[in-house]
Amino acid sequence: MWQIYALAFLMIAGSLVAVHTRYLLSAVISLAVVGLALCVAFLYLQAPDCAITQIVVEVLALIILIRATGVEKDISEIRDKREVFVIETAVIFIVVFAFFIFKALNYLPQFGHPLMRVSQEYINKGLAQTGSANLVTSILLDFRAYDTLGEATVLFTAILGAIIVLREVGRKEK
Amino acid sequence: MSPIKNNSQGMSVIVKTVAKFVVPPIVLFGIYMVLHGHLTPGGGFPGGVIIASSFILLTLAFGREVAFQKLKRSTASLLESIGGLIFLSLALLGIGFGGWFFLNFLPKGQPLRILSAGFIPLANIAIGIKVGGGIFAVFLVLIMFRVKK
C-alpha cells in the first residue's frame, strides 16, 4: 500500500515542478515523470491494460511535446511576476475542492473492496457471454462497445481538426 | 536500396542502424498486441499506437522522405477512416443479423483460442488500423508542419 502513496507523492512532486519550472523542456520532462509514475501505479493496482496504454501514449506524447518545444534554442523563459490575485483564487478553490472531496470520499467503499453489483455481474458472466478471455476487452468491445464507438469518434474528430488547422494545401501566402 | 547511406537527413549513423534493427520487432509486437487483444492484456488501441510509434521512429531517425516512402500522410488518414468505417459497419451488421446495435453475431468459439470471442478480434483489428493511422497522421501534421516564409 505504501507504494501507491510513494507514487502519488512522486506524481504530485512532478506536477509541481512542471508548474513552477522556468523552462518548457523541464516542464515537459516533469510531466513525463508524472505519466510514468501513473503507469507503475496502474501495475500495482493490477490493471495491465491501463498500464500498457498509459506508457505507450505517454512516450508518444513526450516525443511530440519535446519536438514541439524546440530543443535547439529554448527561449521560453518566464519572467513575469505572478499576480497575487491569481494565487489567492487558486488557494480558495483548492480549499473548497478539498473540503467537498473529503465529504464525498467518506461515502465511497473501502480501498480494494468494491461493492458494485454491475461489475460483479460482468466478472461472473463475461467469459460465458462473450467468449473473450480478457475481461477488459470484452467490456470495451461487447458490453460497452457503444462507448468505444464514441471514443473512436472523439479521436477521429480531434485528428480531423488537427489536420485541417495545420494543413499545407490551400493556405494563404503572407 | 540502402536509404541509410544515401540519405544525409535524419539523425546519426548510430541511431539509423539501431532503428533499422528495432523497427521490425516493434511492428511485430504491435500486430501481436492487436491480434491477441481478446486473450492477453492490450488490444486495438495500444497495439495501434505501438505500430504508429514504429513509423514515428522511422520518421525521426531517417527524415521525412524515407518515412513518406513507407507511409504517406494521405494513406495514414485513409487508413484511419477505413478502420473507423469497419468498426461502424461491424456494429451495423448486428442489426442486419436480426439483433441490435453491436450484437456479437459471430459464433463464440472455444475460449482462450485465437479464433474465439465472436467479432471482438475483428473490432480490435479495426480499432488498431484506425488508431495507428490516426496517430501517425496527427504526428506528421504536428511535427512536420512548417510555415513557408
UniProtKB/TrEMBL annotation, chain A:
InterPro entries: CPA3_Na-H_Antiporter_A (IPR050616), MrpA_C/MbhD (IPR025383), MrpA_C/MbhE (IPR046806), Nuo/plastoQ_OxRdtase_6_NuoJ (IPR042106). It comes from the Bacteria. It is a multi-pass membrane protein. Residues 116-167 form the MrpA C-terminal/MbhE domain. The keyword Transmembrane applies. This is DUF4040 domain-containing protein. Keywords: Cell membrane, Membrane, Transmembrane, Transmembrane helix, Transport. It is found in: Cell membrane. It comes from Aerophobetes bacterium. GO terms for cellular component: plasma membrane. Pfam families: MbhD, MbhE. Its main location: membrane. The chain crosses the membrane at residues 21-45, 51-71, 83-102, 148-166. The lineage of its organism: Bacteria, Candidatus Aerophobota. Residues 10-67 form the MrpA C-terminal/MbhD domain. The keyword Transport applies.
